[in-house]
Amino acid sequence: MSRRHLAILTATVLAAASLTACGSGDEPGEGGKTLTYWASNQGASLEADKEILQPELDKFEQQTGIKVNVEVVPWSDLLNRLLAAATTGQGPDVVNIGNTWSASLQATGALVEFDDATLDKVGGKDRFVPAALAAAGAPDQPPAAVPLYSLAYALYYNKQSFADAGITAPPTTWEELAEVGRKLTGDGTWGLAVEGANPSENAHHAFTFGQQYGGNWFDAAGQPTFDTPQNVAAVKRYVDLMAVDKIVNPSNAEYAQNQSVSDFANGKAAMLLWQAAGANLKSQNMAADAYGVAPVPFLASPPAGGKQVNSMVAGINIAVFKHTKNLDGALEFVKFMTSDTEQVTLNKTYGSLPAVGTVAADPAFAADEQQVLAQTLATTAAPLPQVPEESTFETLVGTAIKELFADAASGRPVTEDSVREKLTRAQQQMR
Amino acid sequence: MTTTTSPPAADRAAGTGRPTRPAARRPRRSLLPYLLLAPAVVLELAIHVVPMLVGAWMSLLELTQFHIRDWSGAPFVGLDNYRVVFDLDSAAGAELLRSFRVTVVYTVLSVGLSWVLGTTAAVLLQRPFRGRAVLRALFLTPYALPVYTAVITWTFLFQRDTGLVNHVLVDQLGLVDEPPFWLIGDNSFVALLIVSIWRTWPFAFLCVMAGLQNIPDELYEAAAMDGAGFWRRLRSVTLPMLRPVNLVLLLVLFLWTFNDFNTPYVLFGGSAPAEADLISLHIYRSSFQTWDFGTGSAMSVVLLLFLLLVTAGYLLLTNRRRNDA
Amino acid sequence: MRETAAERLSRRVVLTLLAGFVLVPLYVMVSSALKPLQDVQGAFTWWPRRPTGQAFVDMWSTVPLGRYLLNSLLVASVAAIFSVSVAIFAAYAVSRYRFRGRQVFSVTVLSTQMFPGILFLLPLFLIYVNLGNATGIALYASRTGLIITYLTFSLPFSIWMLVGYFDSIPRGLDEAAQVDGAGPLRTLFQVVLPAAVPGVVAVTVYAFMTAWGEVLFASVLTNEDSRTLAVGLQGYSTQFNVYWNQVMAASLVVSVPVVAGFLALQRYFVAGLTAGAVK
């Protein structure tokens, strides 16, 4: 390369470097009368969500004069987009985040901290359901978000299939579930449907089973402890539903796009472990009286240290980016979204539970499904580890379980050793 | 698309009987050529070269979620990220090596088979017959189809319970009893390969077809007079005449296929099974899903160096052979 | 030279197999688009038992397909036009002039094609954002940014192909024009370009297709307003369901224009390759 070219190149690099170094997006401007809001996909489609949210946003504009531009972001994109927004200080003012990501996103330092003073601006700490607020950031820090929609896992079962097989009550232990499942399996239908290729779903179940076996995925210092005997047993128990009990269609090993819900709705599977599946089932033409909802089972005889936990504290949080040009407006919007009226309207539409205590008794949440979810959340749900590496945990452990399901589906044995080996490898990839 | 102008350029300069560039222009040491090039140079610098250098710089930083927001202030860790990448005893290093191996096998098979299919089709369509134009259009269609529509259709075909592939294998032909998986486990590599070949071979077909048009009919006529059959003509006329095309074509296909991200990304939805974990998807996951952009960048730099090395070696080798000949 | 019977037979067999390989996915795309959702979720059937055009109606409301389509059209056309314009000048310089750095330019530009996209994705994203913050020129999340990105993606191949094409145009024509007093640019526009139409068309088509199909950069560099089809189509797999029939219908709709365009212009493409790149 000639010297001239070298000079040009150097100049360009320097120019670009100086540009990248000095820009940072916090300058105030443009009156701040509009907010950008990224909503997560909660309903049947992105457009459907938009139609649900728009009237509420119009209401907010009427009340405050602040216009909210909503973009519904698909889950496949959401974490990357949030990360991009955190990196660059550009993008939305207010966002929905999966509550399990709270600590991970908190670690970037891009989200507004909800210390007590800030919480007061959105209605006060006491408004929120404590368990849900606990899943909004690391335990020793102010939350990085506040809860918006609360969810928990429940066991959905097909009433007709149960009646046909002469089963009178939903199973309460995994042993029962396996036994019931065997009765329900056959003739092209299966006992249970799982989302075997979906890392997040897998990781959530790994957490719940882990709790029941007395395992922890992170120790007190925040270090990963994936391959403890308890966690190995927990993961094996989950995968064994397909590998040993054979109550799960091997096809489920490639499910990653909620096909398990469709299978349940279409009668191809008699049971499903899911968070607030009602709205989805309705959209797939399964009537609400066609299925029953029960708490997720426990172990019949829990080992020492096993916890009485049968769901994670699931849900969607709402957070504000520090780079917002209109912090007050953004908090005003958070307050609006967590107000009694909006909590009832939105959670009712999505079949989720309110994140604030004041409207828990509202008739909108009196259906069986919501009762079970509320009961679970109140008594037997625990938050996923609130550590910065949580999203990495979901990816790595979830993927390891996906591989185990693939093994099980293709008839390869799933042994304690093979489970441990996968978990060890996942742990080694955490740095 | 490709990288290598040098063989054709060298070829041209070496003179295929054509007059080389007029020396007459040279004395006017005009700025004009530089002005003409300026837009292209500026764009390439801005969109490719500078970001690439920034990327190389990032590979020296500890760029995790803790530092991503203020990335210019991320701790400088020197070659630590590279140490992780090359440490084959660590999980990250071992996984990368495995992904690299998968990619090499995938590339060799995909490029090789695509080339064979493309050349076969081009040779068979060399002479006019009824329906030739239709076939030609049909064969080119996969190349024209946008990547995601093509791959997503294949995803649908490969579904275990509802896909065409198993419907044919199990229900119609009865070749296997138990429907196999295509998108997870061992077969995922095969699935990936099939999709890749489906998308790639039309390009080989296109290029070889163009190359064949440069072969003068007289050569075939002469060969036919000597009594050469189909294979003989192929070996002694077609393939040697296609050599310059093939040299470029194979290199282009190699680089495309080795860097292929879209096919596995759309086919497996972001998390490919280990058997089909191509290197660019692996790097994408290492960067975006585990939020470790420093290590991800280090892997990319290593990949780039590898490709540079292979390409340079390939060009040297093919040029030397040509010079020897 | 006559074809023997065996040769003809094997030619037919091989071509039929290849045609089948190509056709099957295309056929499934069409037939699945004509099925109701329940049928695509059930066991595979070759023929739609209850054919319906409903997917072609629903697909517009499940995702804002119209907007994505418009964005893709805009981005791909503008990127293609600019890419070709820039390439024409560069190729003319390389083909007709000897100057210092010519070789360096060729090699550098083409070697950028070796760069793994993933290596400069994040840096490019950061540069766009910071450039926007510093100067107010919105590149991130705008169609402009995407256009600039894509036009550089197709640039190297376009330059390379056009250099080959220009080289094949006899220099005698240039010289005749110059004797008539035409300057270099007039020579380019009045002599070289008219003779290079197939090459230019081929390169335009290539640049358009490159921009039309790109996924990775579009997924990071766009937002709701500037989203292109390549990313937008992922919206059919939602929290509730994968609307396979709508995916196929939408795929069909976004493929037909490019495929038709490409096939209509394929002759130029082959001619362009013949004269240029594959020499």
What's the structural blueprint in terms of helices and strands?
The complex is a heterotrimer of chains A (431), B (325) and C (279).
Chain A (H helix, E strand, L loop, with lengths): L2 H20 L11 E7 L5 H19 L2 E7 L1 H14 L5 E5 L3 H7 L7 H6 L8 H5 L11 E6 L1 E6 H6 L9 H11 L5 E4 L5 H14 L16 H15 L15 H7 L3 E7 L2 H6 L7 E4 L16 E2 L1 E7 L6 H11 L2 H11 L2 E2 L13 H12 L1 E2 L7 H20 L6 H13 L3
Helix pairs in contact in A: 9-10, 9-16, 10-16, 10-17, 16-17
Chain B lengths: L5 H9 L17 H27 L21 H7 L4 H34 L7 H13 L2 H11 L6 H9 L14 H26 L4 H9 L4 H29 L3 H7 L10 H11 L3 H32 L1
Helix pairs in contact in B: 2-13, 3-13, 4-8, 4-10, 5-8, 6-11, 8-10, 9-10, 12-13
Chain C lengths: L4 H29 L3 H5 L12 H9 L2 H32 L5 H10 L5 H19 L7 H25 L3 H9 L4 H12 L1 H17 L2 H6 L7 H4 L11 H32 L4
Keywords:
heterotrimer; B: 325 residues; mainly alpha; MetI-like fold; 69% helix; 0% strand; globular; disordered N terminus; C: 279 residues; 13 helices
Q: What would you report as the Rg of chain A, rounded to the nearest angstrom?
A: 23 Å
Q: Measure the end-to-end span of chain C.
A: 27 Å
CATH top level of chain C is Mainly Alpha
Q: The CATH topology of the largest domain in chain A is what?
A: D-Maltodextrin-Binding Protein, domain 2
How many DSSP-defined strands of chain C?
Answer: 0
Shape-level CATH architecture of chain C: Orthogonal Bundle
Helicity level of chain A, as a percent range? 40-55%
Kindly report the spatial arrangement of strands forming the biggest sheet of chain A: 2-1-3-10-4-11
Number of domain units of chain C: 1
Instruction: State mean pLDDT of chain A (0 to 100 scale).
Output: 89
Number of helices of chain A: 17
CATH architecture of the largest domain in chain A: 3-Layer(aba) Sandwich
CATH topology of chain C: MetI-like fold
The count of domains of chain A is: 2
H and E string of chain A: HEHEHEHHHEEHHEHHHEHEEEHHEHEHH
- The secondary structure category of chain A is alpha/beta
**Distance between the terminal alpha carbons of chain A, to the nearest Å?**
40 Å
